[in-house]
């Protein structure tokens, strides 16, 4: 017995010593690793510091084939912009620390650029948190809870409007959104999705199946997986009715058979716009069409596409010398608060895409808007090389999917450079007027996706520094994609805005997706999406000095020459020079 006890004691002593030794070795290794990482960060910080402390990004954005903008403003005899250059020239040593020197791109500087994007997103977090706190302080919802119902995406009853807020959704927020659009019911699902309509689903579910907590309100239930928590919002509609937006679309030639074209109609003496809009809103149609005392409700279709407007006098009853027969050939069209939901359903690709497609643009060139159009036209989510929480919260679910998953129809990117470009099999290259792009990106940098920069921002020294750095990036981005892109579709933002359906058809065909004309018309009816800037916009504001214009115009001419050299259509005439 004593012998066994002695062996056990000896074993415990050895184990104790072994544990002490391992602990000491672990602490020493951790200390050494910490010291090594600290020294590495200090070294990288000293190397990566921008010569201009006002900018985190200026020197990263240069492109192959561009020269120093200082040289552009002070040209030497014989100097010219180089389009087909394989690499940037080594600058003189005395110019190495000049704030106007544009260094060559490399992997380290591109990583810094990506950090800038992520830092901007993190800067928006306080604003989003403040909005969340304000929402929590809001009054409790006033609607009547109707119960938990099943949700079938193919035959959804609440299909009048759809909203997403994957971070701040609350019951009150959903109710208010539906009430402002004249709906009777608001339904919430997955804790973050809001659906509006005027009819309850037929199939009720067990109360415990609605078990998803609202993303923006702890303790509240916002539906579940394929389950809707539905509220009646009639109490809110009386106050919301005054705020509804009924938009005049114009005077159009009436189709030959109105009853066949429009699924709902009403004949009412002394018919008014409000009466017709109210009727069509209850029927969940986005268009209210008035001809005399007749009211019709429906969607834009091939028979009635709203593309060819007529003179408004043809619809006016006060027009002299206009017979009632002539006026009967035309009708007034109004947009009701109801959302056209024929194209709002979206999903991830069921099988991995064989072709890896980029949606590439310079920041501020309308990439988010183009993604909205592509998603609603094709019915598939778009991905992103980055992660933007604001976009994800508003329904761009591909933001959270890994950009190389190939489950999205295309991938947003602002990257340039040989390595980044050659990862993609093909690309839609979206180009916008650099003057507009620079202002849009400056607005986004200081006011987010939906706001405008203040006068103080525009008048600060950061604006000229921003232009000097980003103008070269605008040009180098296009030049790099022209040089290294394998298969390109060039789309000019201005052409897409002016001729939406034809250009969107080109983009969809490039993505090898077949869509119906009605779906494209639905996209046109919802063309703005949820990312149209709001707020006080400065009128007749010219932020560009003559020096800035000279710099930008040189880059415009370089890009125009490069596009024509690759047998693409040159830049729109409105780009060149101011």
Automatic annotation (TrEMBL):
MF GO annotations: sulfotransferase activity
UniProt KW Repeat keyword: yes
WSC domain residues: 142-234, 245-343
Repeat among keywords: yes
Gene3D superfamilies found in the cross-reference section: P-loop containing nucleotide triphosphate hydrolases
Pfam (any one): WSC
UniProtKB keywords: Repeat
Family, as annotated: Belongs to the WSCD family.
Name recorded for this polypeptide: WSCD1 protein
Organism: Grallaria varia (variegated antpitta)
Lineage: Eukaryota, Metazoa, Chordata, Craniata, Vertebrata
């Amino acid at each position: 017995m004593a012998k066994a006890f002695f062996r056990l004691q000896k074993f415990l002593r050895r184990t104790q010593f072994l544990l002490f030794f391992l602990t000491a070795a672990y602490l020493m290794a951790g200390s050494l690793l910490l010291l090594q990482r600290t020294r590495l960060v200090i070294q990288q910080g000293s190397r990566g510091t921008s010569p201009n402390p006002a900018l985190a990004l200026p020197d990263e954005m240069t492109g192959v084939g561009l020269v120093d903008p200082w040289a552009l403003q002070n040209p030497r005899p014989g100097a010219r912009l180089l389009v087909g250059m394989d690499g940037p020239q080594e600058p003189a040593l005395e110019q190495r620390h000049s704030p106007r020197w544009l260094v060559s791109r490399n992997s380290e500087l591109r990583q810094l650029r990506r950090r800038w994007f992520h830092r901007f997103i993190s800067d928006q977090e306080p604003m989003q948190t403040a909005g969340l706190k304000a929402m929590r302080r809001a009054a409790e919802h006033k609607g009547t809870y109707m119960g938990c119902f099943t949700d079938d995406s193919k035959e959804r009853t609440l299909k009048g409007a759809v909203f997403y807020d994957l971070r701040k959704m609350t019951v009150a927020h959903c109710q208010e959104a539906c009430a402002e659009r004249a709906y009777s019911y608001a339904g919430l699902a997955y804790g973050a999705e809001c659906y509006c309509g005027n009819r309850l689903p037929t199939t009720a579910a067990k109360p415990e199946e609605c078990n998803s907590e609202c993303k923006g309100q702890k303790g509240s239930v916002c539906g579940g997986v394929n389950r809707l928590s539905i509220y009646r919002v009639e109490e809110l509609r009386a106050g919301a009715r005054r705020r509804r937006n009924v938009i005049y679309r114009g005077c159009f030639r009436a189709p030959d058979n109105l009853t066949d074209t429009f699924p709902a109609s009403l004949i009412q003496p002394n018919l008014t716009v409000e009466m017709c809009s109210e009727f069509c809103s209850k029927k969940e149609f986005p268009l209210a069409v008035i001809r005399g005392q007749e009211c019709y409700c429906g969607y834009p279709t091939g028979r009635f596409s709203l593309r060819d407007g007529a003179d408004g006098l043809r619809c006016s009853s006060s027009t002299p010398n206009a017979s009632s027969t002539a006026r009967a050939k035309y009708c007034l069209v109004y947009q009701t608060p109801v959302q056209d939901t024929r194209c709002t359903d979206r999903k991830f690709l069921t099988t991995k895409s064989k072709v890896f497609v980029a949606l590439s643009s310079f920041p501020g060139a309308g990439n988010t808007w183009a993604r909205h159009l592509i998603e609603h036209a094709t019915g598939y989510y778009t991905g992103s090389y980055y992660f933007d929480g604001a976009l994800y919260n508003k329904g761009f679910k591909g933001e959270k999917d890994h950009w190389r998953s190939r489950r999205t129809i295309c991938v947003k990117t602002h990257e340039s450079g040989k390595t980044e470009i050659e990862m993609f099999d093909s690309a839609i290259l979206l180009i916008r007027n650099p003057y507009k792009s620079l202002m849009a990106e400056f607005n986004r940098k200081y006011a987010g996706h939906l706001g405008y920069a203040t006068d103080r921002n525009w008048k600060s020294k950061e604006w000229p520094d921003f232009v000097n750095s980003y103008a070269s990036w605008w040009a180098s981005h296009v030049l790099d994609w022209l040089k290294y892109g394998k298969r390109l579709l060039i789309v000019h933002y201005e052409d897409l805005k002016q001729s939406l359906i034809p250009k969107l058809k080109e983009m969809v065909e490039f993505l090898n997706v077949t869509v119906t004309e009605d779906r494209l018309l639905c996209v046109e009816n919802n063309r703005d999406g949820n990312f149209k800037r709001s707020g006080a916009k400065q009128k007749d504001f010219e932020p560009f000095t003559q020096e800035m214009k000279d710099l930008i115009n040189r880059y415009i001419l370089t890009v125009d020459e490069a596009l024509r050299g690759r047998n693409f259509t040159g830049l729109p005439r409105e780009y060149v020079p101011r």
